[in-house]
Amino acid sequence: MFSLVLSGLVKENHRAASAILRETCRVVEDREESRVIHVSNVTRSFGSRQILRGVSLQVNAGEVCALIGRSGCGKSTLLRIINGLESHDGGEVWVEGTLLPSAAGRDRDRALLRIRQRVGMVFQKCHLFPHRTVLQNITEAPIHVLKRPPLEAAEEAQALLARVGLADKAHTSPEALSGGEQQRVAIARTLAMKPGLILLDEPTSALDPRSAAEVAALLQELAEQGQGMIVVSHTPSFVRSIAGTVCSLHEGRVVEFGPASEVLGNPRHESTREFLKSA
What is the DSSP letter of 167? Predict the structure, then answer.
């Protein structure tokens, strides 16, 4: 009788332990799935100059993270590493569950193909194709990379143009647009790939104040709609309006990282305080 009772207790404990383990695994998986970017102890040097000195951060799905800091602190280099435009020397870079190898080769090429289908990038300069119309600029990647039917891609591109306030510019040459309009087309082109994350490197710095305000308003709207973004900016008011988290870099290191309200509301590092004075 004792052995039967003991056996029953063991089985019951085993079932309970299994249930706890399954729940724990589910929670871990949910957390991992929500993590779009995970950068761990990343380093990067150009010759004898060390740009990134063990940078670590993570960005979750639907989160907007602002990278701030002085010029030359490594913000743009970090963005280019995440998108594979630059390689890293050490550490790990995970993008939507894909490990990005640092060494050139077939494994890195395969990883980049997966990453660039899910992560878009918007530069200071728009890099639109001057020989194609606005609509053609937006449909190029969905048709040739995602293999979308041309008519379907064109319909979605037209809807995106309406979303960024340029519905009447579909058949216009990019050279006929203002700087702000070109940047909004570049954002629409990125959105056409349905990215989980958009990387933006100083998206308003090359624009006049009116155009910059138009682009900032669009990005704020995207943030409110849950679009994940990592944004490099030197404008405190823009960062306050868009960012949920802030990562402050100084001389290649993360000196502050956390909710925007905390980092900007009570900055601990001098470089963060200098950034806020630049308004």
Answer: G
- Predicted confidence (pLDDT) per residue in 85-114, tens digit: 999 999 999 998 999 999 999 999 999 999
Distance CA(139)–CA(142), nearest Å, equals 5
Closest by CA to 217, choosing from 199, 197, 203, 234, is: 203
Whole-number Å distance between alpha carbons of 86 and 81: 5
Which of 180, 174, 233 is closest to 207 using CA atoms? 180
- pTM value is 0.83
How large is the average pLDDT for residues 52-60?
95
Side-chain-facing half-sphere of 27: CA atoms under 13 Å: 6
Query: Which of 1-5, 16-20, 196-200 is modeled with the greatest confidence?
Result: 196-200
Cβ atoms within 10 Å of 259's Cβ, excluding its own: 12
206-223 pLDDT per residue, tens? 788 888 888 888 888 888
* In the predicted structure, residue 5 carries a pLDDT above the cut 70: no
Q: How far apart are CA 43 and CA 254, in angstroms?
A: 12
Rounded CA-CA distance 59/39 in Å is 9
Full DSSP string of 77-134: HHHHHHTTSS--SEEEEEETTEE--SS-SHHHHHHHHHHHTTEEEE-SS----TTS-H
Which helix (H) or strand (E) element contains residue 252? none
Other CB atoms within 10 Å distance of the CB of residue 203: 27
